Every structure is written in C-alpha cells, then in structure tokens.
Amino acid sequence: MFDWEEMSLFGSMIKLRWLRDNILPLLEQPTEEQLHAHVRAYLLGLIGGVLMLDKTGNKVHLMYLSLLTNLRRTRKYSWGSACLAMLYREMCRATKVGSKTIGGCASLLMS
Question: What is the pTM of this model?
C-alpha cells in the first residue's frame, strides 16, 4: 500500500508524480473494481497532465474524481469543450501583470 502522509495534497489538489508512483500494476485477472480503480487513476493523471494542466503542470484537482465515478458516463462528457474553456481562462489569466506562466492544454494552443 502507500503512505498517506507522503500523498502530497495541496488543498484539493494532488501531485501527479505521487499519482504515477502509486498506481498499482494490474493483476493478470483483475476484478472489475480493481480495473475501474486503475482506469480512474490513469484518467485523473491524463486530465491533470495533458488536458487541464495547472500553471505548475505537476498537480491535478481532485474535483475531476467526481466526474469519473461512473465510467460509462464519462465518454458522454464534452471533454474538448472543457479543455478549450480551461485554455481560454488560462490565457486570460496570463495577460495579467506579473503572470509568468500559463496553464491549460498548450498543445491545443499550438495547433
């Protein structure tokens, strides 16, 4: 198991490195519950590391876990729209005086 004290919670955010380091490998014949937990952890890392990056790029907000409770429903969400909205918000924040970095999906901005 993992050490809860090393979990690296920052308010309601968690470090992506901790998440990656503590995803347990799947067994050869995982139960449905084990498989779903693994998929949720992977998707949370994908959301925080690619789609909805914060300015530091090393944390993910735990509010996204509530969107991953029903994995069948997650494909119906408009992830592209949410990613674009996050990028627009981060671009607005980047225009403020003193701002040095930008969050959001930079690859979307480049394309």
Answer: 0.81
Residue 73 forms part of a structural domain = yes
Dump pLDDT digits (tens) for 47-84. Answer: 998 898 888 778 999 999 999 999 999 999 999 999 99
Domain membership of residue 31 as a residue range: 4-78
Whether 68 is in a domain gets the answer yes
User: CA torsion angle for 3, 16, 80, 63 (degrees, to 10)?
Assistant: 40
Residue 10 lies in a domain: yes
Q: DSSP labels for 30-71?
A: --HHHHHHHHHHHHHHHIIIIIS--SSSSEEEGGGGGGGSSH
Tokens 């991953």 — which residue?
68
Please answer whether residues 42 and 66 qualify as being in contact, where contact means their C-beta atoms are separated by less than 8 angstroms: no
> Among candidates 10, 33, 37, which has minimal Cα distance to 22?
37
d(CA 39, CA 23): 10
Give the total number of structural domains in the chain: 1
Indicate whether 106 belongs to any domain. no
CB atoms within 10 A of CB 14: 22
